[in-house]
């Protein structure tokens, strides 16, 4: 079995990549911005772990075309119950990643709809960004909604908040390990690559010029101010990928939210923790 690569959003970045980009930065700022932008929009496709095999096997799967972004995504329909819950994975995740939560929802009488975001899992293409996550959610709502609830992890949480702001109708939302400021995410990404802060600024300017949109407008704390539905926020204090202060700030700007901070679960283990799943069940039941 080949050694699994690590996501560049973590602290373990290949030394060869750091060396290359350090040299590139000395040669050309323009090329560095272009290369870093490509990395920023290129998720790693991981193999599905054994714990997700049963959801992958039992799900009805099909490719769905998303007209606005002109891309296809793989969707997973899990369970036969009429009441549906939307699940949204994070960066470099996949549609079966929230399997433990999905299993609990099946037990509670729901079915789930999840998907591999563009450039993730079984979905075609190699590059994507959060706006494509959001458009995928909105198209799923048109095709399979209405959903009772929406549950997201990391970038999936940010995407759910944006989708609610843009018209997704759900009774409640749950966001786990969510990021907050897009500018802060970009700065952190550039910092972990050992690049100068000016690279983050130029990456942002390039994106905004290309798409004619303010990147920071996607930030969770900004869209949160327009959301009224009950929202459960869960984040681990020992999350080394996304600081828990992001969720604390989101909580401050939501009108109707509950914040739960866990310990020693990190960014991904939190998705399968029994106590976390009990909190989710309690929130949805009350």
Automatic annotation (TrEMBL):
Question: Ranges for the AB hydrolase-1 domain?
Answer: 85-190
Q: Which InterPro entries match?
A: AB_hydrolase, AB_hydrolase_1, AB_hydrolase_fold, Pept_S33_TAP-like_C
Q: Reply yes or no: does the keyword Thylakoid apply.
A: no
Question: What GO molecular functions are on record for this protein?
Answer: hydrolase activity
Residues of the Peptidase S33 tripeptidyl aminopeptidase-like C-terminal domain? 226-285
What Gene3D superfamilies does the entry give? alpha/beta hydrolase (3.40.50.1820)
Keywords per UniProt: Hydrolase
Q: Would the keyword Hydrolase turn up in this protein's UniProt record?
A: yes
SUPFAM superfamilies, per database record: alpha/beta-Hydrolases
Q: What name does UniProt use for this protein?
A: Alpha/beta fold hydrolase
What organism does the UniProt record list as the source? Flavobacterium jejuense
